[in-house]
Structure formats: C-alpha cells, structure tokens
Amino acid sequence: MVLKKWDKELTEENLQVQIAQAQQRWHELESTEPRAVSVHYDEIENLIVIKLKNGAIFSFPPKLAQGLANASPEQLADVWLPLSGSSVHWESLDVDFGIPELVAGVFGTKVWMSGLEKK
C-alpha cells in the first residue's frame, strides 16, 4: 500500500515508524502533562472539580469557561472524562477542554479570555 502525501510515499515501514513515534510522544505526554482521573460538578459550591492523576485537585467556577457560563446545573453535571484523562467534555453543550489548558488557566479562546480580563 502506497499513499502520496506531501510528496512522500507512505509505505508500511514508514507507517510503522510514524506509529512508534506517536506512541513515544503519547508516553512523554502521559508523564509530563496533567491527566484527570475524575471530574464532577459541585452544585453547592458551583465549581467544576477535577482530580488529577498526581493526587492534586483543580476546580473552577463555570462562569470562567467558554460555553459553560450560562449552562444549567443539570448540563454542568453531565460531564464526561475519556480514559486518557486528557480532556473533559460536555456532550449536551458541545464543549471540550484539555486538562493541561484548564490547569494553565486557559478557559476559552483568546477573545473569550480577553473578555474575562476586562471583568
């Protein structure tokens, strides 16, 4: 099987090399980036609470996050965490956030973040 992409041939050998490189990169990210083991919405405190793989707990008010600011408690509670622990997802709101970005304080696009700074 040979596919052309960017003038390089994708052979079985090249594909195996790319897979190995992707697996290596995944292992590097696994050991250096924060990963979540659980997430839930705390309705009493009005916080999204994320427990990280290293035991730390990170939380934030939904009003900070693009797409969550006007969500109902039911929508906020309907949060999903993939097995990789690399992101959180709200299906009914069509909202996704990467865990490393959230921990770094990135709660949306540059425009959204700029609006937060003005408040």
Write structural notes for this entry.
By secondary structure, the chain is an alpha+beta fold. The protein has two domains: 3-32; 36-118, NE0471 N-terminal domain-like. Helix content is 34%, strand content 28%. The strands form three sheets. It has a three-stranded antiparallel β-sheet. It has a three-stranded antiparallel β-sheet with strand order 6-7-8. A two-stranded antiparallel sheet has the order 1-2. A hairpin with a 4-residue loop joins strand 4 and strand 5 (57-60). The mean pLDDT is 88.
Assign an overall shape.
Answer: elongated
Helix content: 25-40%
What class would the helix/strand composition place it in? alpha+beta
- Strand % is 25-35%
Average pLDDT metric: 88
Distance between the termini: 56 Å
Give me the CATH superfamily of the largest domain.
Answer: Uncharacterised protein PF10387, DUF2442
CATH topology of the largest domain: NE0471 N-terminal domain-like
**Strand count, sense and closure of the main sheet?**
3 strands, antiparallel
CATH architecture of the largest domain: 2-Layer Sandwich
Number of strands: 8
CA radius of gyration is 18 Å
Query: Strands of the largest sheet, in order across it?
Result: 3-4-5
The tally of helices reads 4
